[in-house]
Specification:
By secondary structure, the protein is an alpha/beta fold. It contains ten helices and seven strands.
Length: about 280
């Protein structure tokens, strides 16, 4: 039994019901299972009833392993995976994604939680463009563990996006795109090349993604490798402190170049062309 990343939290009763179903499928009695893991029949009965108080994680894992299943524990916090909270790589890719979308003229929200018709989850990045009545649901991945799970959950989020946008912003998108974003690393490219189902789920490449962002018309399901992203946990090399140019803003004068000519305001950087 695996508590999957995109599933609602698995509660004690569900753990007990799954254990019972697996035991019955084997044709075992509670005492048969208990004997194989070295506990009492009453403990198995209590677990199958959803009472996990005082039960060790080790015992639970041994019970499921005996039934050829696996128990995985996944902490959750405030609607988002705790793993994401501490995943510096994930945060770096999200920040880079937001920057590129804003440069392309999209409004962006991150970690958008939802609960619609009993379906719950969190959208990594939700981008909208009201003038085009378009929305883009983005899943950020630094690892590609399960193609089926990625596609299924992103399909759910895209399906619910019109209601999510309407409830948050007061208008309904006519076009909803899906985008899988990853850092540009050879390991991830090899994984994608070895997983044809992902290429079929997300057929549009980086060039098609940039074109759709500029003119969001029609169906879109893309994959986007972002270049120039260094993991946040890398050590930074210290550089000597010195004056840094700042863009001229109201209340801040542009610095003067040698000779007295004012330095022009810094222009927004174009979207990186190395993304693919």
């Amino acid at each position: 039994m695996s508590a999957r990343r995109d599933d609602p939290a698995v509660d004690d009763l569900t753990v007990g019901l799954v254990l019972r179903a697996l035991r019955i499928r084997r044709g075992w009695r509670q005492r048969d299972l208990a004997a194989r893991v070295g506990c009492s029949q009453s403990v198995v009965s209590r677990i199958e009833s959803g009472h996990l108080g005082g039960v060790t994680v080790d015992l639970l894992r041994r019970l499921f392993e005996t039934l050829d299943a696996r128990l995985e524990l996944l902490p959750r916090w405030r609607g988002a995976d705790l793993e994401r909270l501490v995943d510096a790589d994930h945060a770096a890719v999200v920040a880079a994604t937001v920057q590129r979308l804003e440069l392309a003229g999209w409004e962006v929200a991150v970690e958008v939680t939802y609960s619609v018709y009993g379906e719950r989850g969190s959208i990594d990045v939700l981008a909208t463009r009201s003038g085009s009545l378009a929305a883009l649901v983005i899943e950020v991945k630094t690892e590609l563990a399960s193609a089926e799970r990625i596609g299924r959950k992103l399909d759910e989020k895209a399906r619910l996006a019109p209601k999510i946008v309407r409830d948050r912003l007061g208008w309904t998108p006519r076009v909803v795109g899906r985008l899988l974003v990853m850092p540009d690393r050879s390991r991830l490219r090899r994984t994608l090349d070895a997983t044809p189902i992902l290429a079929r789920m997300f057929p549009d490449d980086g060039l098609a993604t940039r074109r759709w962002l500029a003119a969001p018309v029609g169906d879109f399901a893309g994959r986007w490798f972002l270049s120039g992203i260094a993991p946040r946990h890398w050590r930074k090399v210290a550089v000597p402190a010195g004056p840094s140019p700042r863009a001229a803003t109201p209340g801040h004068r542009a610095r003067a170049e040698p000779g007295g000519a004012p330095r022009p305001p810094r222009q927004p950087a174009p979207m990186p062309r190395g993304d693919s």
